[in-house]
Design brief:
Blueprint (H helix, E strand, L loop, with lengths): L7 H6 L3 E5 L7 H8 L5 E8 L5 E9 L2 H11 L3 E2 L2 E2 L1 E4 L13 E5 L7 H8 L5 E8 L5 E7 L2 H11 L7 H6 L12 E4 L3 H12 L9 E4 L7 H8 L8 E6 L2 E8 L1
Antiparallel strand pairs: 1-3, 1-6, 2-3, 4-5, 7-9, 7-10, 8-9, 11-13, 12-13
């Protein structure tokens, strides 16, 4: 159960809408409402949750007035709620966001021995970090996310660390001569949402000609590339675009041919 405004014109206007992140995972819709109702009438209030109902650590509060939203941002931003210090900002629609202004980074190509402490030691000298985490995919490869306080520091981190070689002398000596640099050099870039990744994939697919037929191909070998997939299908006719979907440098087992 959550509070929601049924008038679509008010919801879509965006006026009085705020975004709350870094929420304690124990904060639910009611706790969020109780915290923010002090500053004015709330039209809708929601903590974002996954399919299992667990909080994703952020939420939205839509006030009846812009003034109430402004007060909430001034009073609650930087306040500790539960065990976490929350960030509160005016909500900006995705299509209005500046793609060159970002604070959250995605990092891959980390050495196997990297942990949260080493990640912090690498990125903190560039500027204050609000959160960071090292994770591991199903193939045991390390990747991470780092969120800076300011877009300026995030851009600086990309400029200074993207393409950095973190290998030891022993690892460099053991490296295969024909291994491509993207397999061992650090990648640091803006963290993309799922929607942004899907859009980029569609754009990479190229042709928008509706006369073409788009095929979904599965059970591909992990070493499959765009070129090898194209080579496989070209004997049967002209291929407009071809993508072997990858997780890092390995094919995820499926792709698209148009």
């Amino acid at each position: 159960i959550m509070w929601s405004q049924r008038d679509p014109s008010l919801r879509k206007s965006g006026v009085g809408n705020i975004y709350v992140k870094n929420l304690d995972l124990n904060i639910d819709n009611k706790a969020l409402y109780d915290t923010f109702s002090l500053f004015g009438n709330i039209l809708s209030c929601k903590v974002a949750c996954d399919v299992n109902g667990k909080s994703r650590g952020y939420g939205f509060v839509h006030y009846e007035s812009e003034e109430a939203a402004r007060q909430a941002i001034e009073r609650v931003n930087g306040m500790k709620i539960g065990d976490k210090t929350v960030e509160v900002h005016a909500f900006v629609k995705r299509k209005e966001k500046d793609p060159t202004s970002f604070t959250n980074l995605y990092i891959k190509g980390l050495p196997a021995d990297y942990d949260d402490d080493k990640l912090g030691a690498l990125f903190t000298p560039i500027g204050p970090i609000t959160s960071s985490v090292v994770m591991e995919d199903k193939q045991g490869r390390k990747f991470a996310f780092v969120n800076y306080e300011t877009p300026e520091d995030a851009k600086k981190a990309v400029e200074e660390l993207n393409g950095k070689d973190l290998r030891s002398d022993e690892q460099k000596a053991a490296q295969k001569e024909d291994e491509p640099p993207e397999n061992y050099l650090l990648y640091v870039g803006r963290a993309q949402t799922k929607q942004e990744r899907q859009k980029e994939l569609r754009e990479k697919m190229g042709s928008t000609d509706t006369s073409g037929v788009n095929l979904y191909v599965k059970n591909l070998d992990e070493n499959t590339t765009d070129a090898s997939l194209r080579e496989l299908f070209e004997p049967f006719g002209k291929v407009n675009s071809c993508v072997a979907v990858k997780d890092g440098d390995k094919c995820k087992g499926f792709g698209f041919v148009c």
